[in-house]
Amino acid sequence: MAAEKAVLAYSGGLDTSVCIKWLIKEKNLDVIAVIGDVGQTRKSLDFVRQKALDSGAIESIVIDMREEFVSEYLSKALFANALYENKYPLVSALSRPVIVKHLVAVTEQFGAKYIAHGCTGKGNDQVRFEVGVRALNPDIKIIAPVREWDLVTRDLEIAWAEEHGIPVPVSKSSPYSIDDNLWGRAIECGVIEDPWVEPPADIYEMTSDPATAPDEPLYITIGFESGLPVSIDGKAVGLHEAILQLNEQVGATGFGRIDMIENRLIGVKSHEIYEAPGALALIAAHKALEELTLERDVLRYKHQIEQDWATYVYQAMWFSPLKEAFDAFIATTQAAVTGEVRLKLYKGSCVVVGRRSELALYDFTLATYGEEDSFNRDAAAGFIELYGLPTAVWARQQRRLKAK
């Protein structure tokens, strides 16, 4: 009797490298490995594909998801200025839904019964994968090997891998867990687990040490149309190209590092290190242009939704109806977000030093205190009286009550 099939979300890292052999040995399953290309750069995906086959997978598929990732996921994150807890640009959280979408498609294509992942039992990604799968096809069964096996520490996983002849990209002396894509890099584990320890210099790849970054500031002008970048320093680019170019240019100035204590979905605080130079620069520029072009109450309300959007995506709700409703509102705000923003980058800092737009709601003649001033000061007294009227009525009533 033929073995049943499981589609494994495969990265080639420690957990998923061990998963293939474990699924075969412990579950008697044929494993189909799916590698999602979302712009990760630290290794050859052809090598990863072959590694899955060498580890026992009956099929190993690399799917190029980059353009879809950019157009359907990163664009929405930029529209939403998405920063979880006002810091983290959702590097890993944004890639999981597009990977899940293709995992489900491959599972249906091959008539597989299971989807497996290598997420730990106390991380966020287990929730993102499983909630996402159930949102797209609730009939698919899920296997989470890392939650089931007795290899409760990374050292035990490494030892098990060595015992079974599985090459893994970590060692007991360098036990970092790294996830990367176009939007940035996430680094955890090892000495980073102690929040008092300064992160080692060798964990960074996308950003220069600010202390050794160039002594002259770098000025970059980003042009936007309807919320998306369309030019850098006057040269036409798309969002994908803009991210790649800014990752390189901005990272070289030392800007883009995040060191934070993060509140995970499952209730644990964790010490996380991120690099996202392009993402953070784009968000800074996009926010500055919105300040110039969006009406006051729309901007204020959008700020509230942005926090909810980031939290929802972080907490595995990409495919939820409320998140889709957020997307619909945010999309309507972007029509006027057209113009240019100039950034000054210097030794780890990024400052907006200019912004302009033909759709700007900034009126110089209303804002200036010079001779061009067109503001009607005569209207101010009446406005203040009416604006403060409810407070004045309340204050009189309070004074009467206190006088009794």
Largest sheet: 5 strands, parallel
Helix and strand succession?
EHEHEHHEHEHHEEEEEHEEHHHEEHHH
Distance from N terminus to C terminus (CA atoms, Å) equals: 91 Å
* Continuous helix count: 14
Q: Tell me the overall shape.
A: elongated
Say how many strands there are.
14
Helix content class: 40-55%
Strand order of the largest sheet: 3-2-1-4-5
Radius of gyration: 25 Å
Structural class: alpha/beta
- Quaternary state of this entry equals single chain
The low-confidence runs, each spanning 5 or more residues with pLDDT under 50, are none
Mean pLDDT: 93
Strand content: 15-25%
Notes on the protein architecture:
It contains 14 helices and 14 strands. With 404 residues, it is of the alpha/beta class. The strands form three sheets. It has a five-stranded parallel sheet with strand order 3-2-1-4-5, sandwiched between helices. Strands 10-9-8-13-14 form a five-stranded antiparallel sheet. The longest helix has 20 residues, at 91-110. It is elongated. The termini are far apart. The mean pLDDT is 93.
